[in-house]
Amino acid sequence: MDRLVTLGLHGIQREYPNSLERFSEKQKPHEAHPAFYGCYDWHSAVHTHWMLIRLLKTIAKLPEAEAIRKAINANLTAQNLQREIANFGHPGQPIPAEPHLAFSKPGQPAFERPYGWAWVLQLAVELSDWDDPDGQEWAANLQPLTRKITELYSQFLRENRPPNREGQHRNDAFSLSLAFDYARKCGQGELEQLLVRYGRTHYFGDTNYPAHAEPGPADFCSPALTEAVFMTRVLAPQPFAEWFENFLPEIGGEETASLLQPVRVTDHNDPYLSHLDGLNVSRAWCMYRVAATLPQASASRAALLRSAEEHARDGVSAIFAGNFSSSGHWLSTFVVYLLGAIPENG
Predict the structure, then answer these.
(1) Could you tell me if 109 and 116 are in contact, meaning their C-beta atoms sit under 8 angstroms apart?
(2) Is residue 210 part of a domain?
């Protein structure tokens, strides 16, 4: 765990390099994002706070605990988090037409939609049940931002747009799963209903997914598997098993061969190729979660578990390979999230 803690603690306090430099020459990152200025980009800063808090919660007597608490106490103040809300603009404000700007440019309602939104909600989930004085203070400080994200997400789901099915930040299914976990655990019934309706409207009818087309050259998540994981939230186990057998029939056959084979990464220091390290990790946790929902005797379940172990092995080893600008500012979160998906007997 030392490597994960070191990367995370260093990352949330490191202001440069930073993606904000593309959009503003006047504001420094810590001025625009007083809570989440590190880790190169906003969403990575958010989910790295989640990762460090997760480690604080789950590892007794973590040697770096005091340093982690000090850094997070400096970042997650009520004032800092209140100022973060301004990054999401105001209702009715125009959204940039270019997809990249709509996602990345602060000060407008689509900023970090949906990936960064989902990690804010996941951070709220992690803090929601922690009986810890610091954790309770951080949870209270985060609430205004969480409410803002919940409002934005609810509005977005009511618009009922077709889902984005790419393998990167704008993929909807990846983020919908995190949002669902927040809605369920934190008692957001209206948001949960919107999520279920969205899943049934846009994903329930999918069959014979073209898994052979994956992966893309810079994917860090699998469109097929993230969709399947989201549908484990939407459907009960038996209906899900029936849906999955139609969605990805013949798991282990030629059509799904590229999906079950870990991706070979030729340069871990390349910012785009290193996304494939994350793909191996996220595929692993998706396979574990889908397998956990399928019947014990399912042939698909057995194939997914075998592949998950291979993906996890290759993906986790990459945490020692990349530099800060490639995978060092984000991959550690994926590894910690994966650890929560591995079966106890796995």
Answers:
(1) no
(2) yes
What's the pLDDT at 23? 67
State which residues form the domain around 136: 1-153
* List of the chain residues with pLDDT < 70: 22-25, 345-346
Whole-number Å distance between alpha carbons of 65 and 73 = 12
pLDDT at 250: 84
Judge whether 344 lies within some domain: yes
Residue 115 and residue 233 share a domain: no
What are the contacts of 140-147 at 24+ separation with CB within 8 A? 140/78, 141/76, 141/77, 141/78, 141/80, 141/81, 142/76, 142/81, 144/81, 144/82, 144/85, 145/81, 145/82, 145/84, 145/85, 145/120, 146/120, 146/121
Task: Identify whether residues 5 and 77 lie together within a single domain.
Answer: yes
Domain check: are 145 and 213 in the same one?
no
- Contact status, residue 117 vs residue 152, Cβ threshold 8 Å: yes
* DSSP states along 73-129: HHHS-HHHHHHHGGGG--TT----SSHHHHHH-SSSTTTTTTHHHHHHHHHHHHHHT
Provide the number of structural domains found in the chain. Answer: 2
The span from the CA of 341 to the CA of 39, in Å, is 24
Residues whose CB is less than 8 angstroms from the CB of residue 103 and which lie 6 or more positions away in sequence, other chains included: 110, 111, 112, 113, 115, 169, 170
Question: Which of 153, 171, 193 is the last residue before a domain boundary?
Answer: 153
The pLDDT assigned to 344 comes to 79
Among 270, 263, 298, 265, which Cα is nearest to 284's?
Answer: 263
> Are 23 and 117 within one domain?
yes
